[in-house]
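Q: Given only this backbone (264 positions), what sequence would you predict?
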């Protein structure tokens, strides 16, 4: 009997753990649209997508909490009714913001410039309206695009200290963008290419080792952030593929000390 009770506690705990922020399913907005939900309460983390300017939650639920406080305590939380419209709190009304029907519909559109946590209550068959940006592929930055096999991206702002596999401080913004891009494109593997600055010289063993170390530094950073190491590989090219073969200024040299990614 005691064993039976322990088993029930374990099963209940496992089911409950799936319905928390810490185990929220990371999913794209496109995949969430028309998703069938069996559980009464489910958490999702909708992935950042710069090609979508806004999301409306239309139907297929009793209520939705956007940015629930149990997930992000430093964010404003919003409750939506079964039609996807914000239910204004007393504080919102007292703030003087317009909450007529037209205004409520407008503020019920949510941005995907960052990951968006939601808590779905009484979900069945979710329906979302996605407002797509009209930017064409050529207008998007490298970190805004969907990756496909064969894509090659030069990361001009991931730079290294001369002679070292140590990132310059300017590099971390694009390193984090690369991490987010790989999080959004979980079905692809990438090869990180490392390069060194050594104009007018033959490619030496030292150059080759340093370029390998630079590529590996990027891999290690991404793994530390949470990317599966099996998705990443590192390859150094020494000084055989310099952007500026006759570099004379520090500006030119720093772009020779770079990394690129090749989507497998």
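A: Predicted residues:
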């Amino acid at each position: 009997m005691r064993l039976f009770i322990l088993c029930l506690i374990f099963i209940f705990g496992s089911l409950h753990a799936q319905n928390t922020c810490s185990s929220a399913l990371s999913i794209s907005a496109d995949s969430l649209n028309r998703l069938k939900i069996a559980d009464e309460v489910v958490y999702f983390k909708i992935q950042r997508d710069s090609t979508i300017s806004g999301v409306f939650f239309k139907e297929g639920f009793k209520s939705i909490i956007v940015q629930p406080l149990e997930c992000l305590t430093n964010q404003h939380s919003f409750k939506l009714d079964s039609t996807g419209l914000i239910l204004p709190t007393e504080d919102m009304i007292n703030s003087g913001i317009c909450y007529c029907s037209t205004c409520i519909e407008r503020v019920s559109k949510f941005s995907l410039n960052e990951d968006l946590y939601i808590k779905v209550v009484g979900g069945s068959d979710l329906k979302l309206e996605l407002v797509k940006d009209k930017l064409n592929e050529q207008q998007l930055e490298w970190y805004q695009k969907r990756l496909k096999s064969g894509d090659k991206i030069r990361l001009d702002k991931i730079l290294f200290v001369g002679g070292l596999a140590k990132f310059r401080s300017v590099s971390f913004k694009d390193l984090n963008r690369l991490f987010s891009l790989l999080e959004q494109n979980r079905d692809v593997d990438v090869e990180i290419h490392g390069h060194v600055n050594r104009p007018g010289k033959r490619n030496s063993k030292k150059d080759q080792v340093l370029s390998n170390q630079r590529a590996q530094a990027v891999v290690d950073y991404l793994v530390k952030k949470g990317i599966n190491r099996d998705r990443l590989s590192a390859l150094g090219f020494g000084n055989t593929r310099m952007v500026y073969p006759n570099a004379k200024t520090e500006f030119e040299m720093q772009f020779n000390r770079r990394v690129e990614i090749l989507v497998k």
